[in-house]
Every structure is written in structure tokens, then in C-alpha cells.
Amino acid sequence: MATRKKNGALDGAGSILSTVAGPADAKPPTSLGAKTPESERLLEKVVSDMALAAEMPFNPTKPLEYGEDALAPHEGARHTPSTPPATASTTTEDIASPKVGDGTPEIGQNPLNGPLDRVRVDDSGRALTTNQGVKVGNNQDSLKIGLRGPTALEDFILREKITHFDHERIPERVVHARGSGAHGYFESYQDLSKITRAAPFAKAGKKTPVFVRFSTVAGSRGSADTVRDVRGFATKFYTEEGIWDLVGNNIPVFFIQDAMKFPDVIHSVKPEPHNEIPQASSAHDTFYDFAGLSPETFHMQMWVESDRAIPRSYRMMQGFGVHTFRLVNAAGESRFVKFHWTPLAGTHSLVWDEAAKLAGADPDFHRRDLWEAIEAGHFPEWELGLQVFTEGEAASFGVFDVLDATKLIPEELVPVRPVGRLVLDRNPDNFFAETEQVAFCTAHVIPGIDFTNDPLLQGRIHSYVDTQLTRLGGPNFHEIPINAPIAQVHNNQRDGFHRQAINRGRVNYEPNSLAGGCPFQAGARGFNSYPEPVEGSKVRGKPELFAEHYGQARLFWKSQTPVEQAHIINAYRFELTRVQTPAVRERIVAGLANIDAGLATAVASQLGIAVPAPLPRATELPIPDYQPSPPLSLLARPGKTGIRTRRIAILVAAGVDGDTVRELYAALLKEGAQPRLVGQRLGKAESYSGHPLDVEITLETSPAVMYDALVLPPGDAAMLALSRDGRALEFVREQYRHLKPILALGSGAGLLEAAGIPPRLPDGGADWGLIMGEGEPAAAFAAFKAAIVRHRVYERETDPPRV
């Protein structure tokens, strides 16, 4: 790292990369470190935003709203932006695709044509109007009979504005209500036509536009991002053959085996109906009452009690199609398939104390993280892998049924084959119009993708479409721009709420001659269901292999590292401690006894109860003895993107070594990290090198849980001031307690001592996550980077924590 004196060009760059706070009074930076098209656009947008806002320090027309002046209509104040990005929703608006258009908006226009460009509206230079296009002369006051008189009923402008406001919300999703999404593309690695005719896999290098929505399952729209929960991972492929929705989760299995039980499991995990408590939490009686009486849930329980349920970000979690689907090629040959998304950033999680505190400090933590990464040009990326196998191979597995959604196929049995990559490179323009109104459905498949008889999947095929009819106002939700395919739509459907298409002619049926037989069915070119032979009586029940509930739960437990196993035990302790009914707790521990005696004993001990007898099993079939599967551990995938997008706190105060801080700041930016100067107050932090630093965010508004690592720079006076600040000391303690890497340079080490940070690990070994920069700064920085890549110092963890 070369010394960079007076390096003001990067000051405040971390605040440009963030969406929270910024320096009190400072010129914006002229660089964000690494010079990329994305960073240049982001810098241009923020600087022009600031300049545009500064042009109107107050509302100059406000006095005209009162007295005699109010009787004469007046135009509103306005200023012309210096650059189009100043008024853009996102810096990624010019990233094009066949769905969003060429990415070049017409400023001041409302073009109702083209792909998504036809509904992107820009108001620059335009007068305010009603929804009917009538220019509004006064948007400050309702129409009154005299200045102090009653409001006139004829005020159609007021009525339209208030009525629209009263109806701006639609019913939230019953599940997956809390979410965030982005546009991007899927790129196929190779031609897969031998196994499927699905359009996205037609040739190597083919790109298909997508929209992806991530979500939590149990909470409402207003719940926090970091709760312990399953995460949705839903991908909408806009193919030339129509829309394919791969609607999955970040966990490859589910709680139940048949859609008949879906309302029950969701009712049980939702807030209890008598008091609407608790929000976005499974830690209550009704969920565990249902779960203990439904032993098929125990495999999924193990995943949810693990760190999988508290991911560090959406960008750092896997995704799965959950069900077994079919791939069908042009010759009509079928194979079974399981879908896997694997993040290039690695599979990383939060620790529970951190997740709980983040829910209060920044309930939008995951949503903000996704937005900021894309805005900065650090586009999230996943690899799509397939487990492909024949029906004969499926029958040979023997100990589980591939139609059972509570079971997975170990990768040792069927390896995952990488077939393409998913890149998210564009944020939405409008959250409601895109992320909230996007409608996913497992029934949306294309030629080459087909269903199996998985009874949970079969129910979802109906449920999702039925849900959208209520949420989005009727059967025309497919015409909402985010849901519209890029493939041409031609059918005989007409009318209904919110119909947009204006169809020519008088024919709305088939067959017909009055329209020349059009639209006509496509025959072999269209979607045709795989002709699976089926024979049997009408019954309500499940196959015998579905009755084995504990083998794969035991497989998951055995495949976790000791750290992950400890976290599962602690999660059960937390969840079941919040349960009030002793019999419900005991029933869950009795189920754990069928999984692993050590697990059951540990959980029972934490709850202060004896280990009960194991739950009776639903089958006499032996519990399968699977070998451990290392890919089931989160730690098996450290990632390939280094420290890109990691949030790094640099604590500063008056008397800090500004030159060293700027040097570190520049080096972190160059690596793609997001450094922030965190201080006691906004304003200048005087540097003993003579060049003050601008504090970007405060300890009060940006607690330790929001950062992945910590830097304590040199400066005797600064570290002394911070050592007298309880918030600074707690910041350091929480970074240590949550197992984060800490770089202490020179006198910065004194703050560690003041905070009571142990210099060595609990076993007496060296703490590789505590880097002391007494010698060459470059070596210390290299060790710090390596520690951040490893994510957490799990060897530091004790229960209860030492600090």
C-alpha cells in the first residue's frame, strides 16, 4: 500500500456506496477507488443529486399559499438536473435487456410502448396533472368557500388525490410478504438440448433476462430482514417460449409432504390468532405443537435451527427448487431434475445475537445490502447446478422417495452439474410496481420443463395462481408490466378487471373461421405434458417411504461442523425456551432423540428437563444410515469474491492519524469493500497529520452489527477519547463477540485493551482475527483481508461469551 498524503479524492466514498448518513459538510469525493463504469455512474448520480437538492434550499413559492396571493394560481418551483442520473431511481437504469428495454429513458416523457420502457415515467420539466391529464393549478390547498370557509364537494382534484391514497395498498402475500428483488440475466454454459428443450439452455452463452425476488416466509411486509426463517429464492425467466418461474427457497427441503397440510403449517408458524403475537418468529407454542405432532417436519426443523436461517445477505445464500421436476427433450424423453443455486460470494451467515440486534438497528439490512451491492456494480452472482437422474435411478435410491419434499438427494449420490450462471445487475425503478407486484407461480413452465407427482408441488400449481387473483385484482395480473412475458401473447381471453390489451376483431373463441382460424394451437411446437403412464385407485394417503422422517435429519446433523452443531443446539434452546407449554417442549426433544442422542441430551439440558422417550415412529423401516455429506455445511463454500461488498468500520476521533486512515480507506475501496468512517458526531475529525477527516456516520446510527470487520487506526488522542466512550467500547466488544476480524494499528491496540478484549483464543492459541499492525502496514492489511474472507473467527466463540 503506497502512502497517499492529502488524499482527499476518496474522502466520503464509503458514504456514496452506502444508503445511510454521510459527512456533515464536505465536498463529495471525486473517486470511489476502483474506476469502473458502475462506480462512475454512482458517483455522478449522487453528486448531481446533491447539486440538484442544493439548488432549492427552501420552497420559494410557500408564501404564495396564503392570503390574497393564494387567490392567483402559481407554478411550482423547479430546476433542471445537470445530468439524467440525478432524477433516476437507480444507477443501473441503463443496463438493458429484452424485458426492461434499451435502458435509455426519454426524459420528460411517459412512453406507453416498448418493453418496460413503455411504463417508465419521468416528470422532468412537466407540470403537475390529475390522472386525467388536467394541469393542477394549486396542489397546496383544497378548494374552499372563502379562505376560512368549508371545503367544496366539487374539488375533484382533492377527491382524486385522497381516493388514490386510500387505495394505494394491495393485500400482502400470505407467505413471503417481506422481500426484495432485482433484474438480471441467466447465461447458459453449454447446449443442454440432449436433456431438455427449455429455451434458456439452448446453447452455450445464451442469455435470458430474469427477475429474482428474495423473501422471508413467516413475517409481514413490515417485519425485519434478519429473523430466523426460511428465505424464498424465486426466479422469473423471460424466455422467447414464455415465462418460466423457478419458485424455491434457500433450504432444499420443506416441512410437509402434501399440499393438504400447507395451510396448517403456515397457520401454526404465523402469529397466534388470539393475540397476533409473535411477529416473524417460530419461537412460540403453536408452531412447535404442530411440528411435534408432525414428525415429517424434523428434517426441515434442523435446517431452520441452523445458521441457514439467518444468512449474512441474500447474496450469500444458496437457492433450491425444492421439488423434483422433469426435464423433457425434443424427442419427448424425460429425466428427473433438482435445481441448485450456489452464490459466488460464498455461503455465510449471521450469528444469532447479531441477527437479533440487526432486526432493531436496521430491519432493512438484507434489502439494503442487495441494493447497495448492485448500485456499486458488485453484481451478485450464482451458479445454477442440476442433479439429473432417471426414473430407474430414482427407484434404486431405496431409502427415500424423490417425490417427498422433506427429502434431498445427497450430492455424493447424484453430483450437482454446473450449467449456467445468474447475474443480478439492475435494481428496480419502483419497488411497488416491480418487486411488490411481481407474481410467481410454480405453474409457469415452458416446453422442456414439466412437473412430477410430488403432492406438495401439485398443490402449489393451483395455489399460486389462486393467490394472485386476490392480490393483484383479477385474472389480468399477467398484463402488469413486470409479469408480462417477452414472448408474444395471443389467445381468446378478454375482459376482466384492469384489462390492458385492446384486441382487434370480433372473434374470441377457437376454432373459428372469421379470424382465419387464428390464434391457432401450436401442436408439437407448444407445451405438451409428458405422457407419464398412471394407474391406480383414488386414495388419500402417502407411499410407505414417506413415513421415514429421521434419517435425513440425522444426515444433516452429522454433516455439520462442531460450531454449526452448537448453533443448532442454542437455536433450539432459544426457540423452546419461549414456548410456554411443557408438553410441547418435551415432544420436540422426544423427536430429536430419534435423530441423535447427543443432540437430544444437549437440548434437554439447556431446557432443564430430562430426555424423554423417543417419539414413536410412523414406520418399522429402519432409519437409514447416511454417510456425512460435507456440502451440507455452510462452511463448505467460502466463496470466490474476496472482500468485495464487505462493510468495514474505521473508528475515528480527533487526533487520529489521517494519512494512515486514508491509505487504508483507499486500499479497501480498491478491493471492492465498503469502508465507513465511524465517529462520535458528524463533522471534522482533526488529524495529527494536519488533514482532517469527515466522519461519515456515527456510533449512534451505525452500531457494530452493521459491519463485517473493524479497523482501529493509530492516534493516541483519538483512541483515548474513544476509550472513554461507552458506545465505542461496546462497538469493539460486539465486533469481537460476533467473531469479526479486527485490525488494530499502533495505539489502536489500546482501545482493545480498554474494551477488555482477550489477546488470545479461549484455548490459549493465537487469535488470527486480531491483527496488530506494529510493523509493516502492508503485511497487516494482507492478514486483515485474509481474515475477512474467512468471515468469522469461530474459535473465539464461547457460550456464554467471554466479552
Low-confidence stretches: 1-5, 109-114
> What is the mean pLDDT?
91
Q: What percent of residues adopt helix (DSSP H or I)?
A: 25-40%
Annotation, overall tally of beta strands: 18
- Name the shape in a single word: globular
**Main beta sheet: strand number and arrangement?**
10 strands, antiparallel
Layout: helices, strands, pairs:
Blueprint: H1 13-17, H2 37-54, H3 156-166, E1 179-188, E2 207-216, E3 231-239, E4 242-249, H4 262-269, H5 285-293, H6 298-305, E5 319-320, E6 325-328, E7 334-343, H7 352-361, H8 365-375, E8 381-389, H9 391-396, E9 417-426, H10 431-436, E10 449-450, H11 455-471, H12 551-559, H13 562-577, H14 582-592, H15 597-607, E11 647-651, H16 658-670, E12 674-679, E13 683-685, E14 693-695, E15 697-698, E16 709-712, H17 716-723, H18 726-737, E17 742-745, H19 748-754, E18 770-773, H20 777-789
Parallel strand pairs: 11-12, 11-16, 12-15, 16-17, 17-18
Antiparallel strand pairs: 1-2, 1-9, 2-3, 3-4, 5-7, 6-7, 6-10, 7-8, 8-9, 13-14
What's this entry about, in short?
The chain has 20 helices and 18 strands. With 803 residues, the protein is of the alpha/beta class.
Detailed description of the structure:
This protein has 803 residues and is of the alpha/beta class. The chain contains 20 helices and 18 strands. It has helices at 13-17, 37-54, 156-166, 262-269, 285-293, 298-305, 352-361, 365-375, 391-396, 431-436, 455-471, 551-559, 562-577, 582-592, 597-607, 658-670, 716-723, 726-737, 748-754, 777-789, and strands spanning 179-188, 207-216, 231-239, 242-249, 319-320, 325-328, 334-343, 381-389, 417-426, 449-450, 647-651, 674-679, 683-685, 693-695, 697-698, 709-712, 742-745, 770-773. The longest helix has 18 residues, at 37-54. The model is unreliable at 1-5 and 109-114 (pLDDT under 50).
